[in-house]
Amino acid sequence: MTDEPGNLKRALRAELRERRRIRTSTERTQASEALTRHLVQLAADLDVGFLAAYLSTPDEPDTRDFLRWAAERGIRILLPVSREDGLLDWAPYDGEDEERDILGMPTPTSELLGPIAINGVDLILVPAACVARDGMRMGWGRGYFDKTLGSMEGCPPVYAVIFDDELVDSVPTERHDMPVDGVVTPSGITSFAVA
C-alpha cells in the first residue's frame, strides 16, 4: 500500500513553507492589515462573544492584531496548547506573556484548561497550510485540529486563516482530514457549502 496522499501532502507543505518564508516584510504588513479587517468583519457578522483562535508564528498570516481587537471588546478568547497525546488543551488569551508548547508553538501563560473548554465557542479560527475551494483543509501534518474538530458535537463555524495563494483548487486528503466552513485571507472572507 502506498502513502500517496501523505507523500503529496509532504511535498506541498514544503513548497508552502518556502513560499511563506520568502514573503517580504511589506507583503506581510499589507496582509496583516487586510486580514485583521476581514477577521473583525467575520466576528461582527457571526456576533462572536466567545472565540477559539491561535497565536500566529512569524511566517503565518497574522492573528495577533485581531486577537488584541477582540480582547479589547470583551470577546472571550481561548488559545490552543499542544499535548503529548495529540489533543489540545486550551488557555484564555490575556495578551500578556507567552511561552512555547511541546511543538514550539506560541501559547499563553494563563491558566491551562482541558480539551472540552472549547465547547460553547461561537467561532474557531484554525491555522492551515492551504485550503481547497471545497473546504478541505490541509494542516501541517500533526492532526491536532483535525482531532479537535472531529470530536466536537455541535461544532461552531470553523474558518482557516491563510494567504490568498493558499486557497487552491484541491488538496490531497486522508480519512481523518476535516473540512472548514470558510477561509479568511487578505482579499476577504470565503465561505463554503460544507456537507
TrEMBL record:
Residue positions annotated to bind ATP are: K9, R10, A11, L12, R13
Database matches in Pfam families: 5-FTHF_cyc-lig
The EC code for this enzyme is 6.3.3.2
GO MF term set: 5-formyltetrahydrofolate cyclo-ligase activity; ATP binding; metal ion binding
Q: Which cofactors are named for this entry? A: Mg(2+)
Which amino acid positions bind substrate, per UniProt? L55, E60
Q: Which family does the entry's similarity section mention?
A: Belongs to the 5-formyltetrahydrofolate cyclo-ligase family.
Protein name (record): 5-formyltetrahydrofolate cyclo-ligase
